[in-house]
Amino acid sequence: MDSLTKRAIDLDLSDPLASYRDRFIIEDDLVYLDGNSLGRVPIDAMERIRDVVEDQWAHELVLGWDHWLHSGTRIGDLLAPLIGASKGEVAICDQTSINLFKLASASLEASGRTNIVTDVGNFPSDRYVLESIATAAGGRLILAAEDPTARELAALLDDDVGLVSLSHVAYRSGAMADGAEITKLVHGHGALMLWDLAHSVGSVHVHLGEWEADLAVGCTYKYLNAGPGAPGFLYVRRDLHEKLEQPITGWFGHADQFGFTEKWEAARDVRRFLVGTPPIVSMAGVEVGIALTTEAGIDALRTKSTMLTALFIEAAKSLSSHGIEIVTPLGPSQRGSHVTIRHDSAFQIATALRKRGVIPDFRAPDLIRFGFAPLYTTFAETIRAAEILREILELRTYDALPATRKGVT
Amino acid sequence: MDSLTKRAIDLDLSDPLASYRDRFIIEDDLVYLDGNSLGRVPIDAMERIRDVVEDQWAHELVLGWDHWLHSGTRIGDLLAPLIGASKGEVAICDQTSINLFKLASASLEASGRTNIVTDVGNFPSDRYVLESIATAAGGRLILAAEDPTARELAALLDDDVGLVSLSHVAYRSGAMADGAEITKLVHGHGALMLWDLAHSVGSVHVHLGEWEADLAVGCTYKYLNAGPGAPGFLYVRRDLHEKLEQPITGWFGHADQFGFTEKWEAARDVRRFLVGTPPIVSMAGVEVGIALTTEAGIDALRTKSTMLTALFIEAAKSLSSHGIEIVTPLGPSQRGSHVTIRHDSAFQIATALRKRGVIPDFRAPDLIRFGFAPLYTTFAETIRAAEILREILELRTYDALPATRKGVT
Q1: Assessment of whether the complete model's pTM goes beyond 0.80
Q2: Residue B221 catalytic?
């Protein structure tokens, strides 16, 4: 047994979060390192979803709306502490791209400016939505280099830029931006700052309040383990609520939802960013995912996540002679909970890993992401993945595999 | 036993759909007449949702996306025959108000005009969304009288009207519009026609193709029994796909979703109206609800629905001396599957009905809706509801109840 494997075993033995693995349905021996795309199933989620269908929906019928109605803001309040927000600033609703559309449209309009800045490496759906909004406003989307520093962003900010939108943890590289520094910079140029927290929530510290961030969106099916396509969330700083008018004026955003007045009147709180009826069965997974993450504690999760990624990076460093380049920043404070490597044969290597029971995520054209979900990923799995990667590279077993592209975020 | 009760028993005995009641979880003796708000739980839905969570999500993990990815259009194709659409014209996605926003925005822009017509009785969320879109286009929302005839609509149509949007079955009165006649009228004025099918799908005949309807939206949690807040659907006639550009340009609408190109490029088919990741657990309920409705057959469902509403209307007619007015059209071809009555003490009467185990739906200020879901509502229940209503009216047991407002669609 080599020294890293021994260390991994010791780390698992002393892991204060070790018992959380038993809170998930794990009936396979996969080394599942794609929890940053779709998290595993919490046992509580299975039970809660059964309860919602077989007890609430079946027996309460339409009267269930008495407690389902405000799920979006009620569960939003449960999420708020995990992202440094206050009660009343967060809602669970819709999908991330729709939430981005609502908040980016509203904030660009409120800014009185026409341009939006993001980075070329931001998630494509974010870039597409932002570009349409800027174009519709008569402006344009300005693309910074991938994972921009504050200095690089500063060079792009002028009086036409009303909104800057970045992923806090980049989906490709895993680089984590400096939320406080960038938010301050953007405010200094009179623009609003919108963070996409899809790869952050549940795995790293997010301090929207401390950063004085204006807006945020994110999804719940990655580190929050809420289930495939579960609703996303949005955050709007409280003092902005009444300044922002989002374009999709549905009844869930009305000040008096059941007043059925002739005219639309926006709710004065975060509900104004809601639109329609929440998908209650899927919302059950969101609530459980947040509860489990809260119970484990974001401090402990971040500590373990950093140790998992550090261990993998240490093992991966020794593979540079096989053409492996580590894309993710090596400084622990500069990365999220996934590690990305680059290799010319990335697709074949990812396929070979899957054949060996290691599930990473391929990102065209040449990246492989390894996501470490601190609620259930073990240190032993982490080293096993690195060892299998080493074997594949040494034996070049991937050479014979087809080199086509595929990927789901 | 009076003659109507005898007739109801006979009708249940000869009901070809009677066995479908056993396909639902029904462990209560409620006379549930709010299936037009939230349908009951199909046993298949319970099982399918268990399967999606406990087998697919738990064991396939991220690889589940291989078959989940195109759920929206795959299940849309299953829905298409129920609304007279063709394969490739329907998608399941998002909530009704969001789908309305996407289609109404795109179609008003394509029309080159600025005004939208709807009716004052249309569902408030529809009116709010449509008004925002017209206003943003520099135009206005024009309100016809409730449940307008083609002649009444004709008086409002001019060269500034680019879109007419109506509910096919009105949520308040239960009146059913003439889809063919109104669509033709609207086309004659050079505008596009968008039907909201929320109260139609699964209970009445809808022939979008025959009507040459341009657009439609609807929800799945009423007569389709897909579960609380399950995703809605949209329909766009095939020849319009490439003419309409919807504003929320998310990755699920991209021509090459995983190409991750720099620029947005709309899919050339109905996928261009999709935005983000579908909520897979809630989608399972949609698929089951459509399958059950398809199995029973819309012809048989519509026949039974008409008989149920006719029976209730016959019983309710005799209550006019107690201040009951039947709001729903008496002609079978002019109504959907719910019957609405008006009474000055509607809220108290609805409360009294609930206390007696009859679940109708109150609509402020003075309407009570009784929804008849032909998959599980019996003729005996229908008469029982009418008899309990008669007792409440005769004994005036409702007088002592509080007269506050409340309601969920």
Answers
A1: yes
A2: yes
Pairing of strands A31-32, A358-359: parallel
Domain count, chain A: 2
Q: Residue B42 domain-assigned?
A: no
Q: Do A228 and B97 touch (CB under 8 A)?
A: no
The verdict on A200 and A231 lying in the same domain is yes
What's the domain range around B209? 47-295
Residue among B251, B211, B202 at smallest CA distance from B89 = B211
CB contact A294 to B (< 8 Å): no
Distant-in-sequence, close-in-space partners of A232: CB < 8 Å, separation ≥ 6: A92, A93, A94, A95, A96, A98, A99, A217, A218, A219, A220, B276
For A115-134, give one letter per residue: b (16+ CB within 10 A) or e: bbbbbebbbbbbbbbbbbbb
What would the two tokens of residue A158 be? 């002028």
Burial degree of B380 (CB within 10 A; 0-12, 13-18, 19+): middle
- Is A281 in the B-facing interface, judged by CB distances under 8 Å? yes
Report CA-CA distances (Å) from B229 to A219, A258, A267, A360: 18, 17, 21, 33
Q: Alpha-carbon Rg of chain B, whole angstroms?
A: 22
- Contact list, A249 vs chain B (CB under 8 Å): 128-129, 131-132
Tell me whether residue B38 is in a domain.
no
Q: Are residues B375 and B239 in the same domain?
A: no
In angstroms, the CA B102 to CA A73 distance is: 24
Report the CATH number at residue B10: 3.90.1150.10
B281 vs A282: CB contact, 8 Å cut-off? yes
User: What is the sign of the dihedral through the CA atoms of B246, B248, B252 and B258?
Assistant: positive
Nearest C-alpha neighbor of B293 from the set B218, B380, B370, B359:
B218
Look up the ipTM and state it: 0.96
Residue pair B240/B261 in contact (Cβ under 8 Å)? The answer is no
Contact B248 A101 (CB under 8 A): yes
Beta-carbon contacts of A242 under 8 Å, excluding residues fewer than 6 positions away, are A266, A268
Bridge partners (DSSP) of residue A117 are A142, A164
Q: What is the pLDDT of residues A105-159, one digit of tens each?
A: 999 999 999 999 999 999 999 999 999 999 999 999 999 999 999 999 999 999 9
Do residues A305 and A206 both lie within one domain? no
pLDDT band at B144 (very low <50, low <70, confident <90, very high): very high
